[in-house]
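Most newcomers find our protein records easier to grasp once they have seen one. There is nothing in a record beyond a sequence line and a structure line. Getting from the letters to the tokens is the skill we practise here. An example says more than a description, so a record of this kind follows:
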Amino acid sequence: MQNDIILKYREFIKNFTELHNNARQLPIGDFCEVEVNPNPSYKVMTFAPHPDDECIIGALPLRLINEHNAEVVNVAVTLGSNKDRKRGRLEELTNACKSLGFSLLVPEQMGLDGVYLKTKENSPDEWLQKVDVIADIITTEKPDMVLFPHDNDFNSTHIGVHHLVTDALNQILAQDPEFKTSIIETEFWHMMEDPNLMIGLSEEDEALLVYALSAHTKEVERNPYHLNHPARMLDNVMRGAEVVGGQGGHAPKMDFAMLYRHSTIVGGKIIPVTSNKVFGVEDDLKELL
């Protein structure tokens, strides 16, 4: 009997790997164009370190479009460090955003360069110019929510974007202490130690994120990381059940989830929300608005 059970687990793993490997045959580079509601009731801005981050962290923005008539503006802070690939990456990014129903805003026409913490430390004048660009975008667009990487997301540009957007927000608050927006920190390359928000995602929405991610053709040709996205989302359910839901708690009934850190602005200062929240696929997100 024990051997029969082991065989069932082996069959499970075999089916899993075969399905994953067969997915490599799926077409890439395709995109659709989602109709954007002309009268949004809520504005979300994602500050993406690279083209593709808009898909990788896009669970919450996508749900806010579908469920609360939000406008999502993806700010492509950089188009990558390879100058020869910038135009190609911009084209891929444009297609991915069309598939998700995101608007696209590219600072300085082709994105910023040198968005690193070392720029802030070694070239303060250059850094301040970049901060001014982001602060101007935020004050002009007046978003109700901003998303950007947490401060330890491993990749140097991700960390740079965290400090860039944080400095821009602090600059705005110094001039206007009444400024308000919800702040959502994201994770990709390195997990946050203290996420406080878990957002469940349906199979349909997860499929759309992966599909949009496949529009970044040259990137997924060298490394088909779009096909690994569902596994990451599955892992988030397991991890989020403990680190957001509470140690020893039951896993929530969802297959896919994304973890974030939610903060608000209180008295002109950025303050993390103290209560952890888990939103299932069917739960209303209006509490975040």
User: Anything to note?
Assistant: The mean pLDDT is 96. The longest helix spans residues 2-22.
